[in-house]
Write a structure and sequence with these properties.
Number of domains: 1
Shape: elongated
Structural class: alpha+beta
Largest sheet: 5 strands, antiparallel
Radius of gyration: 36 Å
Low-confidence stretches: 1-14, 466-475
Number of helices: 13
Strand order of the largest sheet: 1-5-4-3-2
Helix content: 55-70%
CATH architecture: Up-down Bundle
CATH superfamily: Outer membrane efflux proteins (OEP)
Length: 475
């Protein structure tokens, strides 16, 4: 509906229009693009630096830092730092901050004015109407829209920070897996060497008629298993290293980075966290983001109710000429707004209410799942620690004592060389099993740490799905 009045426009409405122009310039872009909050969260939770690369100078600084870290064997902390600085997918994710801040700035600006003109002519008679209108009703909705976009921007900041910390967790797990894979290859090669020696000795003794075909076949079977296990271990080594390389964002000569020769030692004791669920409820960033989302939806519902009947109210000066072209214009103002005749806004409000209840239930589901996830990861962490400690304190020392006793028996000619070789293979396999258990512990610890920050991507070891190539080499 449009109302025209040809009379001097009220000063009050003119002042409102001027105020609208002033209001439109209040919301501006921040200097950091919202990155400071992400940097602070990352520093507090991981102790690492993160930077949004926007210029060539930023890129040069990052490249130099990465080169320094790659110049030496890459520790787990250095690997995480390289990933946070160099991962291109993470840099792409920072663009969400820019998009959300642009929406926030846009929400705080008044809509552009509308200019309309009608020109009609019949002979020397003219009818010319000109109007410049402003959306006055947006003055009411701008504060609500800005508040909603502020909450959404804060939610994006929490989500981006969570993505940063999730990348850090994935990098830690990839580093542990890669180092363990290197160790496994070395130990499997030792098993293969022992099996090779046994198979060659069996072949020679069989040729001399001092060894049965059955025993020779058994030694050859051990050697065949050992060769297969080396190939499997090498395949896992390649997969693990390439996964780490992708997370680090490396290419070209950078992929020749070096890793330490062994995993970190098992800690003296496992962390005791009786209040682990409460810690997760207080610290998890995904729950904070979900709360902000629910609040934003609630605000949006209020905005929908505000605009359910009138969503376009425009006012502005107008002038009309009727008659001769030289006649003076009649000046006044024009008001236009939408009449709720066919659509009373009920569907919009019902939709907003349904979305709000959907958000509330999803927030509740996230909280329930978070409690379950942190319980699962904590129990997996404690169990992995107990298993690794059992290998370290019981199985490996027992295998070592058995090897020492068999060496004495071999020196006393009480057992043969094949018994000694079989025992050596068994001892090496037990050491490799300890390496796997130690790797699983560090993976479980990473999952636990991530579950206190956000939803963890459970490792295969935590799920019990990770198999390692030991095969028959320990027989």
């Amino acid at each position: 509906m449009m109302i025209k009045q040809i009379c001097p426009p009220p000063r009050r409405l003119a002042c409102a229009a001027l105020a609208a122009f002033a209001l439109g310039g209040c919301t501006t872009f921040s200097k950091d693009g919202g990155m400071t909050a992400v940097e602070q969260i990352t520093k507090e939770r991981s102790g690492k630096d993160v930077k949004w690369v926007k210029t060539d100078a930023d890129r040069d600084t990052i490249d130099k830092r990465v080169a320094e870290l790659l110049a030496k064997p890459l520790s787990v902390d250095d690997a995480v730092q390289v990933a946070l600085l160099n991962n291109k997918g993470l840099q792409a994710g920072f663009g969400d901050l820019g998009v959300s801040e642009a929406d926030l700035v846009q929400a705080g600006r008044l809509r552009n004015p509308h200019f309309s003109m009608l020109r009609a002519r019949l002979g020397d008679d003219y009818k010319i109407e000109q109007a410049l209108t402003f959306n006055i009703f947006s003055l009411v909705t701008i504060p609500l829209a800005v508040e909603m976009e502020k909450r959404r921007f804060a939610q994006i900041q929490q989500q981006v920070a969570l993505d940063v910390l999730r990348l850090a967790s994935e990098t830690r797990k990839a580093w542990f897996t890669a180092v363990a894979a290197d160790e496994t290859v070395r130990y499997m090669q030792q098993v293969k060497s022992a099996a090779d020696a046994g198979a060659e000795l069996a072949r020679r003794m069989a040729q001399a008629g001092n060894w049965s075909k059955l025993n020779q076949a058994r030694e050859q079977g051990f050697y065949a298993d050992a060769v297969l296990n080396v190939a499997r271990a090498a395949k896992m080594q390649t997969v693990a290293r390439e996964q780490l390389t992708r997370l680090l964002g490396l290419w070209g000569a950078q992929i020749e980075f070096k890793l330490p020769e062994r995993l970190p030692d098992l800690p003296k004791g496992a962390d005791d966290l009786p209040e682990v669920e409460q810690m997760a409820m207080e610290q998890r960033l995904d729950l904070r983001a979900m709360r902000l989302q629910t609040e934003a939806v609630a605000k949006n519902l209020g905005l929908t109710k505000t605009t359910r009947f009138i969503n376009a109210l425009e006012f502005g000066p107008a002038r009309v000429l009727e008659g001769q072209r030289s006649a003076p214009y009649k000046k006044g103002f024009e008001v236009s707004f939408e009449l709720p005749i066919f659509d009373w806004g009920g569907a919009k409000v019902a939709k907003a209410e349904a979305i709000y209840m959907q958000s509330v239930n999803r927030a509740a589901e996230s909280a329930i799942n978070a409690r379950s996830e942190v319980r699962e990861t904590y129990k997996g962490y404690r169990t992995s620690y107990d298993i690794a400690r059992h290998y370290r304190d019981e199985i490996v020392p027992i295998r070592k004592r058995i090897a020492e006793e068999n060496q004495l028996r071999y020196n006393g000619m009480l057992i043969g060389v094949f018994d000694l070789l079989a025992d050596a293979r068994s001892q090496i396999a037990s050491v490799n099993s300890y390496i796997e258990a130690l790797r699983d512990f560090w993976l479980a610890q990473s999952d636990l740490q991530m579950s206190l920050i956000g939803k963890p991507a459970m490792s295969a070891a935590a799920k019990g799905d990770l198999t390692v190539p030991t095969g028959g080499a320990g027989h």
